[in-house]
Structures
1.
Amino acid sequence: MKYTQTKNEIILASKSKVRKEILQKYNIQCKVIASNLDEEPIKESLVKEGASPEIVSKNLAEIKATKVSSLNQNYIVLGADSVIDFENEIISKPRNRDEALTTLKKLNGKEHHLISSVTIAMNGSMIWNYTDKAKLTMKSFSIEDLKKYLSKISDNALYSYNVYQIEGEGKNLFSKIEGDKNTVMGLPVHKIKEYLKSLA
C-alpha cells in the first residue's frame, strides 16, 4: 500500500487527543481506533525481565500497532507509547491523585527523561519503529505548591498524560526541557512524516 497524504489516511492506535492533534497539525490524515491494551501487566513483565525503559516503550508501541493492524488489513497503523524514566525506574501513569503527588515529589527539583516510541505496522506486522528521548529538569517546589498545581489539573489530563501536560499547566513545572517538544507530548512526528514520505 502506497501512502499518499492527500488520498489515504493512517490509523492512529491511540485515543490520545494530543497525538491526533499533532498528526493533523503536520497534515497527516488519520482515524482513531484505540488498541484498548491493558499496559500494566505487559510493562511489569518486561521490567521483571530486565528491560530498559526504552525497550518497554518500544514494545508497548509495537503491541498496540500490531494489535490494531491485524484487525485492519492493508492500512498503515501507528502505535505510540511514552514512559517517564527516572534514574532507570519507569514511572507509570497515576491511578489517583495521591499517586500523582508521590510522583511529583519524586521528580521535584531533579532531572528525568521522557521516552516516546512509535511503531508503524501493516497487516499485523511491524514495518518501522523509532524511539526518542527528551530530558526535563523540574523546578524545586514546596509540597503545598505541588498540591496547588494538581488542583488545577483535570482528572482526564492527569490520568491521560501522566503528571504533567507539557502543552498546558505542566510547562510551568520545568526550568529546562532538552529535546523535541513533540516527543515530550508523546509523538516524534518529524520522523513519522519522513517515513510516510518514503512510502510514496
2.
Amino acid sequence: MHEVRIHGRGGQGVVLASKILAKALVEEGQFVSAVPQFGFERRGAPVVAYLRYDQAELRALTNIYDPDCVICLDPTVSRAVDIFAGLKTDGTLVQTSAKPVAEVTPELPETVKRLGLCNAVAIAMEIFGRPITNSIMLGAYARTTGDVSLEALQNGFQSVALRDAGLDQNMQAIRRGYDETSVHQLNGSA
C-alpha cells in the first residue's frame, strides 16, 4: 500500500489535486481512497489531503500518519506545519521550490530518500497568472515516483474538473510539471 499526504494552502487546489490523482490511479487499475481534511477553510490557511492506493482492495479510511510520499504545493507551508511528520524512512518528497537541490537538501530530514523539485510557482504564474500549483505538482509527482502516467493524470483532471474553463492550461501545466521536475536520490544524509 502507498500513502501520500498533500500539503498546501487554501485556494491552491489541494483537495482537487487529491481527487484528480485518485481518478488517475483508478484508471491505472489501483484501488484508491482520498480523504480531505479541512481546518479554517479560508484562503491561505494550511490545508492537507490524504490518499492511499494499492493493487488490493483498501479497508482503511483514516488520515495518513506515516506517508510514503509528501507532496508540498506551497514553498512556505512548511513554516506553518510539520510536513515531514511521520514520513517513512525511505520517503519521497515532491516539493515546490525555486532553490537548487544543494540549498534544499540541508533543510530535509534524513527520512527523505527521493526528492522531486519543481519551480511550480513560476510555472503557475506563466500559465495561470496566479500561484495555483496543484496540476503542475501532479505532473511533478508522476515524474518523481513513476506511479501514474501523464495520460491518466490528464484524463483524471478532465473527469474531475467542473467546467471546461482552463482545461487546456491545466493540461499544459501537468505536462510542464512533469517535464520541468528534477529528481534526486539522496544517500541518507540530507
3.
Amino acid sequence: MSFLESWITNFLTITMFFYIASFLLYLVRLFKGPTIPDMILAIDALGYDLAAFLIILSILFKNPVLIPCAIVLTLWIYALDIYVAKYLEAKEMGE
C-alpha cells in the first residue's frame, strides 16, 4: 500500500464519521422539524449524503457495485423533489 493510498483511506475513514454525525443531525431535523419544508429538506440532505456515503464505501471496499446504487438513489431523490415541489406549488399531484 503506497503512502497516497493509505492517506486517502485514512481521510475517507475520518470523513465517514462526519457523515454519520450529519445523518444524526438530519434525523433530528426530520422528526423535530417545525415545518414540512424543513422535513423535506432534511430528507433530501439525508438522501444525498447517503449517496455520497455509498460512494465513499465503494472506494474504501474497492467494490464498484455500490456506485450504481448511489446513482439510482440520487435520481430517486431528485424525482421526489420535483413531485413535492409540484405538490407544494399547485396542491395537486398530476402526471
